[in-house]
What does this fold into?
Amino acid sequence: MNILVINGPNLNMLGIREPDIYGSETYDDLVKYIQEAKGSHDLDFFQSNHEGALVDRIQQAYYEGVQGIVINPGAYTHTSIALLDAVRAVSIPTVEVHLSDVSEREPYRQLSYIREAAIATVMGEGFAGYVHAIDLLEAFTGEN
It folds into this structure.
């Protein structure tokens, strides 16, 4: 299965940013964790702090024949209708993932625009949430 794993703003700062919430492991550790758990898939990783770059990458996935998207939009979860529109436009099954349980965090983190276009949301599972998201894509598409 061809899966695109997208991470939004500040995910490149894992290990530095709020370790009491996100832990001490780095973004490179996250990528390695997913590759080791789901290395049988064709995995492509993309991280950007820029909303337009994330939209461009989602659109590019359509032309590449990507079969599923795992996305942690970071703070754009709560602000970006552009990401929602991009996911809707490409019609690629998408799972929203968050390292922390955003439902137990600040009130402004309760809104998720991307959730409207996602087949599922995984939150509060740390790195394992990405593997869970890929499992959900596999089940949804019938691919392994």
Summary: Residues 2-141 form a domain with the Rossmann fold fold (CATH 3.40.50.9100). The chain has a mean pLDDT of 94. The CA atoms of residues 95 and 120 lie 5 Å apart. Helices lie at 19-22, 27-38, 51-64, 81-90, 128-141.
